[in-house]
Amino acid sequence: MADSSSREEDRTVIESVLLDIGLEATKSEDPEDLRLSISKVEPVLLLAELCEVGTWEGWDIISAVRAEGMILPVMVISGEQSESGTGAVSAFSAGGNEYMTKPLHTGEFKHRILNLLTLTGRRRNLNQILRVDGLMLDPSRRFVSRDGIELKMTPKEFDLLYYLAANQGMICSRIEILKEVWGYQFHADTNVVDVYIRHIRLKMDKGHRNKLIHTVRGTGYVMRAPEGGTTS
């Protein structure tokens, strides 16, 4: 019963985290099914729940699609509890990019996935409607509203606001924002981020007591919902 309960908890963590960050999951039961799934839709991430990490037949499929130019980050999830680290070594040697053992911790699992997507450039593919305490961002229409009132944003203002909302609760440095939102390597002393944040605040916070974007002195910015606020 304990093993069954533990597996169910891990499954719940996986499903809730993927839903939270806007990833739609497709399950493959065997290597051939995996090959077919990848041929239909290019995934942004592959989660491999494995017992025998090093001998998994799916590694050959991953190597083949990568050789064709596909960027496919792989996170291995294993039930191995050994302290020898053999599972992790096998995963990385075979082509894995991340490795976690069960039971999964929700926060760590989420941020490892986000970090992996960021490092491989796949995070920008996320297209999820985000909501933070009355603020709503719909990337498909590039639409922004707060408490039901539409806010007119320039394309770059929208990109910056969406980036902060997607990383809600995480401190985003100015350098990271420049890299992820502008896509260029700016000089460290540029104030373009601060200028855009000021413009966004003027539009977003007018008439609202709760401020959503907070300055982290000397570092950058973070979006936080106030206590009792809602996020999705």
UniProtKB/TrEMBL annotation:
Residues 127-225 form the OmpR/PhoB-type domain. Residues 127-225 bind DNA. Signal peptide: none annotated. InterPro entries: CheY-like_superfamily, OmpR/PhoB-type_DNA-bd, Sig_transdc_resp-reg_C-effctor, Sig_transdc_resp-reg_receiver, WalR-like, WH-like_DNA-bd_sf. Residues 1-117 form the Response regulatory domain. It comes from the Bacteria. Keywords: DNA-binding, Phosphoprotein, Transcription, Transcription regulation, Two-component regulatory system. This is DNA-binding response regulator.
